[in-house]
Each structure stands twice: as structure tokens, then as C-alpha cells.
Amino acid sequence: MQLNLIVLFHWKWRVQLDNVDIKNNNKILINCDKFTKKEITFNSSNILQYIKHSQQNLEINLVLQDNSQLKFKLELEDLACEVSIIINVEIYDNAQLEGLFFLSSKNIKIDFVCDLIGRDSACDVRALIFGGYNSVNVINTFQNHLSANTRSSIQTRRILSNDSVSKYYGKILISEVANNSDASQQDAVFILGDNIKNSSVPALEIKNNNVKCKHAFFAHKPDEQSVVYFKTRGFEDAQVTRLFIDSFINSLFNDKNFSVFFNKQNIVNKINKLVDNFF
């Protein structure tokens, strides 16, 4: 059974929507029962209503029981306040999580902790962050392989404009019992403006030799020769930049396994609008 679920909040914050439980004013529990499939979206509207009453801190707990599947989307745009969100994930036997984070607000901190507890469990998360003028964003990810035959992949793309600060920390842990596990982590930055402060710190803790594990980082800024080439052919500055950014973010979405639930074109359109505003 396929569920399309938008999590909504009302003023008393006592909400239960098909295994979505909100309690203690700043904790959300989403439980996916065995053999179920769910699609859940958090966006600026419902998150903002909630965090006003929880001092800008929110904890989301996702539990994927055996053989369940969850598609999870977090879209935070134009939030006026600082936001800190902790996302804790537990994935059991043969369960699968697909996630997308789209962040374009001024001051955001995200901590994503994924525990692959069951055999053959899997996690695939992609994050696209637009760091606007004078913004601060901090992303910390943890991929904990705690059982055999587990798979995880986290890919981030960060676009940074003038006077922005961006920090990424990603850790992969593979335990002694996690034979045949496969973990990957990739972080990339597109330098759109000036006076940018960026850091990217990967960490690996591998306790089993029979595994695959990799991490990568790269930074991209259009070279002047390429910019001149396009401008001599009639392209304006914004158009040239959009061409480079389209290529940059397509590397995040250009995957036949990427679900239509995440609506790639909608995300691309939002990024293009933000780039146009930059100019």
C-alpha cells in the first residue's frame, strides 16, 4: 500500500496521523510498520508552526520496521528564525529509507543520524543547500552500520553566495559485525559569491575489513575562460551561472533510482529562482 502523507500540525500539538506521533512539544515519532510503504513531507509551513512553540529545536525520530520503505522529504525555505533539527533513524531488516533535504533558509543546523540495525537495510539521502547572503548552515551526518549487508549513501550539494558560512561534517562507522557493508559519502560546494567560509570534514571508523567505504569532496567555481566563452555568444551573467549550477545539481539527481516523489524539476526551478535573485 502506498501512502501519500503530508504531516500537519494544529495548535495543541497533539497529533497522530497514521503512526506519526508528536509528543513532548518538540519530538516527532514516525513509525513504519512491517511491509508498509510511506511517503512523508515536512516543509516550511508545518515545521515553522511547530518550532515557534519549541524554541526553534525539533527532533524527528524515524523507525523503519522489517521490510518497510519510507520516502522522507524535508524542505525548509525562507524561515525567519534559526532552526536546529535532529533526525534520528533506525532501520531494521531489509528496510529502506530514501531522503531528500532542500534547505534555503538563512540559519539552519541539521544533525542526521542513521543507524542501520538490521541485515540488508539501506539508506540513500541527498541534500541540496543554498546558502544565501550572510547565511549560516551546519550539516552533520552519521552513517552507522551495525549489521551485515547494509548500504548507505549520503550526497550533499551546497551552493554558497556572498558572505555565507557553511560547515559539513560526515562520519561513517562500520562495526565489527557489519560484513559486506557498503558506505559512501560525497560533499560538493559551488562557489557563487565572495567572502565565503566553508569547511568539509569527513571521518571514517572502520572495524571490519570485508566492506566497501568511500568519501569525496570537491569545490567548483566557473573558470573565467568558460564564462567569457558563453558571454561572447550572447548569454547574460545569470544565464551562464545557471548553466553551471544545472550541471552541478544534476550530478545529485541524475540517477534512474531517484524517486519521482522528490520532484527534481521543482527543486531545480527553486534553485534557478534563487540564482536569478542573486543577480
Walkthrough of the structure:
- The chain is an alpha/beta fold.
- It is 17% helix and 49% strand.
- It has helices at 44-51, 224-231, 237-253, 264-278; strands at 2-6, 20-23, 27-32, 37-43, 57-64, 69-77, 83-91, 96-104, 107-116, 122-131, 136-145, 151-160, 165-174, 182-191, 197-206, 212-220.
- The strands form 2 sheets. It has an 8-stranded parallel sheet. It has an 8-stranded mixed sheet with strand order 2-3-5-7-9-11-13-15, with no helix packed on it.
- Mean pLDDT is 86; it is low at 1-19.
Concise structural overview:
17% of the residues lie in helices and 49% in strands. It is an alpha/beta fold and 279 residues long.
Q: Which residues form runs of ≥5 with pLDDT under 50? A: 1-19
Q: Helical percent range?
A: 10-25%
Q: What fraction of the residues are assigned to beta strands by DSSP? A: over 45%
Assign the structural class, choosing from mainly alpha, mainly beta, alpha/beta, alpha+beta, or little secondary structure: alpha/beta
Write down the secondary-structure element order. EEEEHEEEEEEEEEEEEHHH
Structure summary, number of beta strands: 16
| Estimated radius of gyration | 19 Å
How far is the first residue's CA from the last residue's CA? Answer: 46 Å
| Major beta-sheet overview | 8 strands, parallel
**What is the residue-mean pLDDT, rounded to a whole number?**
86
> What's the helix count?
4
Overall outline: globular
User: How are the strands of the biggest sheet laid out side by side?
Assistant: 1-4-6-8-10-12-14-16
